[in-house]
Amino acid sequence: MTDEKVFAMSFSKVYSLLVAKAERKGRSKAEVDEVTVWLTGYAETELDKLMASDITYGDFFRQAPAMNPNCEEITGVVCGVRVENVEDPLMREIRYLDKLVDELAKGKAMEKILRK
């Protein structure tokens, strides 16, 4: 899948898939919301509004209020791609969220996921 396709996908569709992945592993939507809020600076109430809107996944990240300054501490491999080596800044932010949800699904403690 090309980057452009990911950027153009519906936020609500992609986010629903991330939540489903976490829930299959015994985690909750609230936990996915928590890591998303931590990463992007959106308020939880904004996430619900965005889920009901037609915003694209790319625009969700482009319009993020404040990416967490600690997001650069997110490292590792997601879908065979080393997150910290992704050159496109927008795609790297998308991979950061993928990595956080992966860590959540693998049972990692929230404190470690949020780099505290």
Strand order of the largest sheet: 1-2
The whole-number mean of residue pLDDT values reads 94
The fraction of residues in strands falls at: under 5%
Number of strands: 2
- Helix fraction? 55-70%
Q: What low-confidence regions span 5 or more consecutive residues with pLDDT below 50?
A: none
Secondary-structure class: mainly alpha
The major sheet is characterized as: 2 strands, antiparallel
Q: Determine the number of helices (DSSP H or I, runs of at least 4 residues).
A: 7
Radius of gyration: 13 Å
**Oligomeric state, counting identical vs distinct chains:** single chain
Give the helices and strands as they follow along the chain: HHHHHEEHH
Q: Assign an overall shape.
A: globular
Distance between the termini: 33 Å
